[in-house]
From TrEMBL:
Family of the protein in this entry: Belongs to the purine-cytosine permease (2.A.39) family.
Region (Disordered): 1-26
Its membrane topology: Multi-pass membrane protein
Domain of life: Bacteria
Matching Gene3D superfamilies: Hydantoin permease
GO molecular function: nucleobase transmembrane transporter activity
Lineage of the organism: Bacteria, Bacillati, Actinomycetota, Actinomycetes, Kitasatosporales
Compartment(s) where it occurs, according to its Swiss-Prot or TrEMBL record: Membrane
Protein name: Nitrate reductase
Keywords: Membrane, Transmembrane, Transmembrane helix
Gene Ontology cellular component list: plasma membrane
TM region(s), chain numbering: 66-88, 95-114, 120-139, 146-168, 188-206, 218-235, 255-277, 298-322, 342-364, 376-394, 406-431, 452-474, 494-513
Coarse class of the protein's main subcellular location: membrane
NCBIfam families per the UniProt record, alphabetical: ncs1
Amino acid sequence: MTDTAPSTPGPPAGAPGGAAGAEQHTRPDGRVELAAGVVPADSRYTNADLHPVPIAKRDWTTYNFAALWIGMAVNIPSWTLASGLVSLGMDWKQAVLTISLANVIVLFPMLLTGHAGPKYGIPFPVLARASFGVAGANLPALLRGLVACAWFGIQTWIGGQSIYFLAGKVLDGAGWWVDSADVFGYPATQWLSFLAFFLIEIAVILRGMEAVRRLENWAAPLMLVGALALLIWIADKAGGFGPLLDQPSELGWGADFWPVFFPALMGMIGFWSTLSLNIPDFTRFGAGQRAQVWGQSLGLPTTMAAFALLSVLVTSGSQAVYGEPVWDPSELAARMDSTVGVLFALLIVLMATLSTNIAANLVSPAYDLSNLAPRLISFRTGALLACTIGVLIFPWKLIENPDVYIFTWLGTVAGLLGTVAGILIADYWLLRRTHLHLADLYRPHGRYWYDAGWNWRAVAAFAVGGVLAVGGSYSKQGKGPFPADGVIPFLQPLADYGWAVGLGGSMLVYAVLMTAPFTAPRQGTEPALPARGR
């Protein structure tokens, strides 16, 4: 066994937060396992879902992680990201470049935070306890969870919409489906489709994480085949690709381009900035660091870049065939002449949306809400609560306007979540150098208890980083909820770089507060640095 506790003196051995060597075992490959019985089963800070995954059950391979990312990245919102950028004046090359660069950038914090998963077997809200405190971790966990709930609602609405469009094509002669009564601005059958997709998602998530892994493993290759089939079909029908590929940029590459590029880049980063926080929820099942690093590197940036290019090619073909670009793949598939083709498209769309929504938007809030009250809320209960919240935020309103969707929603979310990522990375990599005491993450009065369970330094860093990241948020006249000169006018120049500003600002403030003589934690709480020579 190897003692992984830092060198600064802590409580005596046997006391809460005592000798780590007696409470956790470190394998030669660096993976750490909690000793049996160290944390009482009735502890108010843990349950079976939040407890570290035993090493014997950390068995996800490179393929599992690559398939996870293919399954999450291949979905309708990903497909339509390029359309949002084109509508802002970019040409297809600029749109694909922006999306590709954003996903390469966001991969780095994802790999850094993901490291704790295979090593310790812990989910995101438990990792956040090391920096925010055992109780204070609820702050970033609830922020991440509420964002995931909103995304869940958006994806569920899109999935139901796809069922509505494609079922209408199959039931072409059934006028009652297409012409059903209007309810709150949408046909009643569209609401029925929304409910059907909602229930399918609940049925899968209630079966647990193993069901999520099986879904991703099967969905990934099927969705790639479906996307390529759509490309072949439209290319054949169009006799080539349409004028969209020849359409010049309205912005050029000069002074008009950069004011759109940087906020759009932050928005594209914001698309997956959620997962840069809670990726330990998945990597905790990893067989080792190699599996999570290679799996994520192969799965995320390559799939997003290829998918963006594919969406442009297919949409360009649709413009040649129908005289207008059709960005929604389900709407395009509904124009097929073959009923079999439409049914296949329906299966692909359902699998794509289902795999993304469950993995990206239900797993996280299930753990995050469970962390709020572990003895009362299990993983499954948290998932059900997330489903309910996701419907109550009216997701159909969030995606009506590309300006609001990309700049207001994605941009603001990216700034706040980047702030949390900066704190996690600074704490885990710069201060602790990847060394954690597992038992104290689950009990009061240990290394991570700080002041009544809260680390005010992390909260202060979050507040400063958050204000810097989103305080200058602004909207063009009549195109968003923010003032034209910014909420805090002198911070407006930072608003276009919200994610990067939030990450860098919080990282710096947190590192200073944790190490400065007058603000560093007292000896006997949690030391900042690991043992020398480790």
